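Table S2 (text version). Query chain:
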Amino acid sequence: MNKIKLDIIGISYSQSQSGAYALILGENEGKRRLPIIIGGFEAQSIAIELEKMKPSRPLTHDLFKNFAETFSILINEVIIYKFVEGVFYAKLVAFDGSKNSEIDARTSDAVAIAVRFDCPIYTYETILTAAGVLLDDDSAMELEKEDSVKEALEDETFSDYTHLSTEEINQLLLGAIDDEDYEKASKLRDELKKRK
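Corresponding structure-token output:
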């Protein structure tokens, strides 16, 4: 079965599920798109790596990469190999220096790892036929990668606030206290402490 290479087109808020995101993968040599609903944490993880941002502490996918590299394991490719009842199935193809191994993974995690290892993402014709969307008017429907990735990063639920100025953080802190959002207030306070 021939593999079809996919590129990450963008990440946007899901219109169908609250609090979720749509990861849009596009056929490398075609106009079909594969929309995959993913969670906020995975969307943030993918977006952070695409934007080449460095969080203060490693995210789970960064830890996976560090662990794999420490033991000389490479991820050569990600394959989205099955689509059943609205769920995509993926696997990582790993190489330990002597043999390839396939590791089952959630598609969102597999893509987050693929961007860290800079490895290709593939699927099969059967998946694109079953779940792909053909865009009629690319100029009207195409997601702008940069804007949609920044959208995912700017979602305050997952923001680490490092990109904001001290004045902006102080304003957000006052607003969080007024709104009695103490979890957000404590994160903002922690960011201010780091800057002193």
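Notes on Table S2: The chain has two domains: 3-155, 161-196. The chain is about 40% helix and 30% strand.
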